[in-house]
Specification:
- By secondary structure, the protein is an all-beta fold.
- The protein has strands at 8-18, 21-31, 39-49, 52-61, 73-80, 83-85, 96-98, 103-109, 115-120, 127-131.
- The strands form 3 sheets. The protein has a 4-stranded antiparallel sheet with strand order 3-4-8-6, with no helix packed on it.
- Strand 1 (8-18) and strand 2 (21-31) form a beta hairpin.
Length: 132
């Protein structure tokens, strides 16, 4: 099977049919072709769902290209009313975790007041992520 992928976001959908019945599945992913330089900073994105916010970070070079081979360790911490969902023994619920393809994430029980999550990779500026 050969398919041309575009740089950036891609979606692939498979549909199987057997008479009147059909079944489908879909995946979405990012395809990166740009070369990256030396890691320069962390970029964070928040995804909210109910009382839980997921903090997703990725290691970027000075031109804003994700460093796909980055496998540095990252440490998350929190100040304020929220609480990290941690110590679960998984890559998405640990205070200290190794980046995978330049990415890491942790979820936060937000609480009622303002919180600040920090993401720290040795040798780079700490990323401060405000949640309200």
């Amino acid at each position: 099977w050969e398919v041309a992928l575009n740089a950036g976001d891609n979606t692939i959908k498979a549909i199987a049919k057997d008479g009147k019945q059909s079944l489908s599945d879909e995946i979405q992913f990012e395809y990166q072709t740009q070369k990256w330089g030396k890691p320069a900073y962390l970029q964070a994105v928040l995804e909210k769902e109910g009382d839980i916010t997921t903090v997703k970070v990725q290691l970027m070079d000075e031109k804003g290209v994700r460093c796909l081979e980055a496998n540095n360790f990252i440490r998350f911490d929190i100040t304020g009313d929220g609480e990290l969902i941690q110590n679960k023994g998984t890559a998405h619920a640990s205070r200290k975790v190794q980046l995978a393809s330049g990415r890491a994430q942790i979820s936060v029980n937000r609480g009622q007041e303002k919180s600040i999550v920090t993401a720290k990779v040795d040798g780079l500026p700490t990323q401060f992520i405000t949640m309200e």
